[in-house]
Write a structure and sequence with these properties.
Blueprint lengths: L1 H16 L3 H12 L3 H16 L2 H11 L15 E2 L2 E9 L3 E8 L4 E8 L7 H15 L9 E7 L2 E7 L3 E3 H7 L4 H20 L12 E4 L4 E3 L28 H4 L6 H17 L9 H10 L5 H4 L5 H10 L11 H27 L2 E4 L3 E2 L7 H16 L5 E2 L2 H5 L8 H8 L3 E10 L2 E10 L5 E10 L3 H16 L5 H9 L5 H14 L4 H17 L4 H16 L5 H18 L4 H15 L2 H14 L4 H13 L4 H14 L4 H13 L3 H14 L4 H13 L3 H15 L6 H12 L3 H12 L9 H10 L3 H14 L14 H4 L3 H8 L2 H8 L1
Length: 826
């Protein structure tokens, strides 16, 4: 009779634990009636389940009812279980016993997990055990424990799985505090495993440190899918019940409501918080209070427990811990992208900090124009630009970018403040006075730490000798800062070039206009570059400037791409022919190869060559990120690359906008909007940053705001130079349900005008917004033929999501040679 009473106790316990926490005590009172002994034992077990980990609870259960639940008879070394030979005991818990065993058929070492004897009489325990095996067996991923088979020995089921030699994350955290890089590395592996599980429709529902095993080699695997929710399988959890470990439960899980993959993301957020802070975000004295905190309270401020954790990481964790599932990340893949970006940024910051300590660093401030003619401003800027370009080619020197340095022009700040904000140790200042064919240049190099002048010099030269002055300046800076040079860098510096002074002056003016990027200025840059080449047909810099100007005329929709890109490619190749070590020419060639020939591999080689020759070039990293990596769908690499550009040029509104576009393409809209805002803080009149805000608003279905942003962008650029802004506006009108206005915009785009190129890409965009798919494909096909404006980004443009579901889009990507490139790029 005693055995029957204890089995009844187990049945009642199972019923109690199937109820929400707040209903368990009332249930115990109802079923026990006047049986105080039964009530005491049942309450003790219920409280044990609330206060202890799962394995500890089942251990206590076995101790409480030893007569009814016999433990599994242990195997000894050498015992046979089917095709396996037991080697030794690895561990025992309440639910199971795990042995190391040898698979005689496949000659490999495995882990055999048996359901512990006490659990064999509990149906739910058997179901969980089999559920664990089936869920894990359905997944094949390096971060999920591999299940080889399910077997049975003398009525006891077992699972044969991969043997993980190591320890759980729980044990690791008990031993020591994790540093941030290690925590991120482990978190990315958990997230990678969740991506694989969720893609197969499996929700784990019990993500916690005890279920995350770390091998001796650092590989993390997710284990124990006993509570997993699988597609097409009966859910072991009844509606209105709680399943999982309370401390890691999501609010909806704690309430017994339906769950989806975002439940795992909550649990993952708790795990991440614990890895970073060394404590849980919701940790109270008992299970009931913990659940109430999970449902109602904000997490404890992470910045107080781990202040050195970067803001981006804290925001990621807080978003994972949002009370409402819709406010969390939409998928584990989105989390993984952000984690990798944060990890890359941390490693980059560490490298920058290391470099800042080990490498000398400098910012070249814009030279002051001391000439009587204000038009000579271009000459001052040009000299500074050429000097920056020369210094950027030196791997042993860290150089602040032109954009960052020139943002302080005319602000009258002290050297120390400028240096601190640019994170450099030295500042080079100078003034230029141009008098006919004579030039006076005065420069001084100062230490940021104390403002002390380390070196100064005055150069009085005729124009023919200005080139020598640049070489002398670079060599003097190298000598004073003790910059270590590679042999190839020495060759480049000592090679020396000279050219016609008239050609040089026209070249500086061309670059001056190129930096302004309006249609009028780019056309001036093209005209001046061609003038330079009439004077000096071997001037590599002029070919490079010509190539850049043509490319951006096509990209912004000022001129037809199929007309300007072949010329741009030819000019870049000429620049390299005359100056094989000219970094910016390789950047130009990389873009031209994509826009002109859809040659992604050639663009990759040229872009990497540019960065090899000029590792400090923020624009080189930015162009490579945006138009090679991002455009071809390699979003993770693109985000990493643009992060490098941003660290090298933290005050560039252009680079921040490119970063925003890349995150928009990756569907990371909040981050995209953040970069657009940062760009506008630096330059409130930058048209593309306003357009980027509109692109994000569209994806958020905030169409009124999107339309206002596009209208602001058009206001800043006008409609006489390009149809790019009109295409965006027409698309937004269409999505907002204002089809008539969208058609008015479409008519305006197509209206023939002598001073404006009609981009087929923009027509395709408006038709796509109107859901006129056939017309959209007609225009998109023409856009590929003409290489018009943003066609290069079509394969990753979120606005073409519907078109990408159509088989005809495969023809578009094949014509752009993207399918083969993506396969070859891995």
């Amino acid at each position: 009779m005693r055995g029957d009473r204890e089995k009844a106790l187990i049945v009642l316990l199972g019923e109690a634990l199937s109820l929400p926490v707040e209903q368990r005590l009332r249930y115990v009172d109802e079923v026990c009636g006047d049986d105080d002994s039964l009530r005491e034992r049942l309450l003790r077990l219920v409280q044990s389940s609330e206060e202890a980990e799962q394995e500890q609870f089942f251990d206590k259960l076995g101790q409480e009812v030893p007569n009814a639940l016999r433990p599994t008879e242990p195997f000894r070394s050498g015992d046979r279980v089917g095709q396996y030979v037991i080697e030794d005991l690895i561990g025992r818990g309440g639910m199971g016993v795990v042995y190391r065993a040898k698979d005689l058929t496949l000659q490999r070492t495995v882990a055999l997990k048996f359901l512990n004897g006490p659990m064999l009489v509990i149906d739910e325990a058997r179901q969980r055990f089999l559920n664990e095996a089936r869920a894990a067996a359905a997944l094949d991923h390096p971060n999920i424990c591999t299940v080889y088979e399910i077997g049975e020995s003398d009525g006891a089921p077992f699972i044969a799985m991969a043997l993980v030699q190591g320890k759980s994350l729980k044990r690791l955290q008990q031993e020591r505090t994790l540093d941030l890089p290690e925590a991120l590395r482990l978190a990315m592996q958990v997230c990678d495993g969740l991506v694989a599980a969720h893609e197969r429709g499996v929700v784990h529902r019990d993500i916690k440190p005890a279920n995350l095993m770390i091998s001796d080699h650092g590989r993390l695997v997710i284990t124990d899918f006993g509570l997993a929710k699988m597609p097409g399988a009966e859910d072991l959890s009844k509606s209105g019940t709680t399943r999982g470990t309370v401390a890691y439960m999501s609010p909806e899980q704690a309430r017994g409501r339906d769950v989806d993959p975002r439940t795992d993301l909550w649990s993952f957020g708790v795990v991440m918080y614990e890895m970073i802070a060394g404590a849980r975000p919701f940790e109270e004295k008992n299970e009931y209070d913990t659940i109430q905190a999970i449902i109602n309270d904000p997490p404890k401020p992470l910045e107080r427990l781990r202040p050195e954790a970067p803001r981006e990481l804290r925001e990621l964790i807080y978003r994972l811990l949002a009370k409402k599932p819709r406010d969390r990340y939409p998928s584990a893949q989105d989390v993984l992208v952000d984690l990798r970006s944060i990890d890359s940024s941390l490693r980059l910051r560490k490298e920058i900090t290391r470099s800042a300590k080990q490498l000398p660093s400098i910012a070249v401030m814009p030279f002051v124009n001391m000439s009587t003619d204000p038009e000579d401003e271009f000459f001052c800027e040009g000299l500074g630009d050429e000097l920056i370009n020369g210094l950027c080619s030196l791997s042993g020197l860290r150089v602040a970018s032109r954009t960052s340095s020139y943002s302080f022009k005319g602000r009258g700040l002290e050297v120390k403040e400028i240096g601190q904000r640019l994170n450099v140790g030295h500042i080079l200042e100078g003034s230029v006075r141009k008098m006919g064919m004579r030039v006076r240049l005065i420069v001084q190099l100062s230490a940021v730490e104390d403002g002390y002048h380390l070196w100064s010099s005055r150069y009085d030269r005729v124009m023919e000798d200005v080139f020598d002055v640049q070489d002398e300046l670079v060599k003097s800076i190298i000598e004073v800062l003790k910059v270590k040079l590679l042999d190839t860098e020495i060759e480049r510096l000592t090679g020396g070039t000279s050219t016609d002074p008239e050609a040089y002056e026209a070249y500086l003016k061309a670059r001056f206009y190129w930096n302004r990027r309006t249609k009028q200025d780019l056309e001036a840059a093209i005209s001046l570059s061609e003038r330079v080449l009439e004077i000096d047909p071997a001037y590599a810099g002029a070919y490079s400037c010509l190539s850049d100007s043509l490319i951006f005329c096509g990209l912004h929709g000022y001129l037809p791409g199929h007309q300007v890109y072949p010329r741009a490619k030819a000019a870049a190749e000429k620049a390299i022919e005359y100056a094989p070590e000219l970094a910016e020419a390789y950047s130009s060639l990389g873009l031209a190869r994509v826009f002109c020939d859809w040659d992604w591999q050639g663009a990759e080689r040229a872009s990497r060559k540019a960065l090899l020759l000029s590792p400090n070039s923020s624009s080189g990293h930015s162009l490579y990120a945006g138009f090679v990596l991002g455009a071809s769908g390699r979003m993770e690499e693109a985000i990493n690359e643009i992060s490098i550009a941003q660290h090298k040029d933290p005050l560039s509104f252009v680079i921040h906008t490119v970063a925003g576009v890349i995150h928009w393409q990756a569907h990371l809209y909040e981050k995209s909007f953040e970069w657009a805002n940062r760009a506008l803080e630096l330059n409130p009149r930058y048209w593309l940053a306003h357009a980027l805000q509109g692109l994000v608003y569209e994806q958020w279905e905030q169409y009124r705001e999107a339309i206002a942003s596009f209208q602001k962008s058009i206001e800043l650029t006008g409609t006489r130079t390009s149809t790019l802004g009109l295409g965006m506006l027409g698309h937004a009108y269409a999505l907002a349900g204002e089809a008539d206005r969208a058609r008015v915009i479409l008519a305006e785009i197509g209206a023939p005008r002598d001073d404006r190129y009609v981009s087929p890409f923009d027509c395709a965009l408006v038709h796509a917004g109107l859901a006129e798919i056939d017309d959209a494909f007609l225009w998109l096909d023409r856009a590929v033929t003409e290489c018009s404006s943003w066609t290069v980004l079509a394969a990753v443009d979120p606005r073409f999501a519907e078109l990408r579901r159509d088989p005809r889009f495969g023809d578009i990507t094949r014509r752009m040679k993207l399918s083969a490139w993506r396969l070859s790029a891995g």
